[in-house]
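Exercise 3.2. Students should predict the tertiary structure of the chain below and write it as structure tokens, then compare their answer with the key that follows.

Predict this chain's 3D structure.
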Amino acid sequence: MLKITHANTGYYNKQVLFDVELNLAEGETILLVGANGEGKSTLLNLVSRRLPLWFEQEKGSCLEFNAEPINQKITSELIQRGLVYIPQKNELFEGFSVKENLIASVALESSRKKVKQHIDDVLIHLPILKELTNQSASHLSGGERKLLSLGMALMNKPKLLLLDEPLSGISTENVSVVLDVIRLFQKMNISLLIVEHRIRELFSLADRIVGMKEGRTHLNKFDNLNAIKEFML
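Answer key:
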């Protein structure tokens, strides 16, 4: 599903990722763990093509999605192909209603019939949003905003979801709601690459846990929470 080979990138002149290697299978859930500033969110930005690959020719760097190189693809192309990124700060259209946000998330879809069907599907899977369809995004709670962002991702029929801190900024009672949505994604055989500091809540949902330290991936045996805690020290 996703293959990352010798990936390097950064911001301006500061390199953040160094020869990152990672494979993610179809339907697999990987949890990326590590302390702040170790490159986890940068990796998601790279895969979603919000950052360029560095040293592509010199190091043979490559990003592959569904066995196809995506080094030169742009974010909108990847969304159409089923690779969708949900950043930590939900990118909503604040002046739009919940329904309008769902419609806007598939702006490239020209068929009104298909858009309506997508919305109906999302509201079946996320019934909480059905009660909020006419409410402005600017008036939603943290948990409701998170659910809307997940619904917008689902509108695009994703095959791979990149989730950056999906439990951030939501109440304890809403954590279980978001975890249920993640379980739903797993039942739908959607591959998941997740960055999250609330590791305890997601530990049991991950098929594999990959560590990141100083911009490099570590495939240690993270079979318990203590092992993860020691790695992050």
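Discussion points: The radius of gyration is 18 Å. DSSP finds ten helices and ten strands in the chain.
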